[in-house]
Amino acid sequence: LERYEAEVMAAGGQVHWCTDADAARAKITEICKAAGAKTVTKSKSMIGEEIAINGHLESKDITPVETDLGEYIIQLRDEPPSHIIAPAVHLTMDQVADTFMARHEGLDPTRALDEPRKLLEEARAQLRDKFIGADVGLTGANMLIAETGSNVLVTNEGNADLTYSLPKVHIAIASLEKIVPTLEDAATILRVLARSATGQEMSVYTTFCTGPRREADTDGPEEYHVVLLDNGRSKLI
Known about the structure:
Blueprint: H1 2-10, E1 14-18, H2 21-34, E2 39-42, H3 46-50, H4 53-59, E3 63-66, H5 69-77, H6 93-103, H7 116-133, E4 136-139, E5 143-145, E6 150-155, H8 159-165, E7 169-175, E8 179-180, H9 183-198, E9 205-209, E10 223-229, H10 233-236
Parallel strand pairs: 1-10, 2-3, 2-4, 4-7, 5-8, 7-10
Antiparallel strand pairs: 5-6, 6-9
Helix pairs in contact: 6-7
């Protein structure tokens, strides 16, 4: 963990050690306030659920926007996730269609939402402006690599890539056990991760984030923050 911190700092990022949920929420809010953030896009994060970051941000007049399709659906319904990988697996297609009809204002009320692709296209259209207009992007981390100071993001939708690369500020929140020593270790775990999660050989998007944007980069955040959360894990060890 200390080597990881050193590598993140060498790449131009900042690491914030947080003992509990209160400290993590306070640090995330502090970073958002410093950036003048009104909207925060989020990729799926179980640590975000653990510390109830959405409700906290809303209480500070900052709007969180879930960008994972399942998380987006249940956010519209004000429900918690029902599964670690498929948060909206408890809903039928008709229930999702009813939710979109009720929450997506300004669209044709007679439009047909009778196929999964139509639901997906409508959600994509709604989220596009959110991605572009966000002030801060908040992601989790599938792994943290000590050797390089990298944060590994694994998705099948590409939402994490848009969440971290488009806003000026990227905050990655991760718990201590996400650390792995080397890139070789990360490659081994990636082979296991997708197979055990969804049965895929590899997830569609696997991204390694290392610090903020460099001078030669065409995109990426201007600030890169990692919030490392303990929240009782040291006591368990």
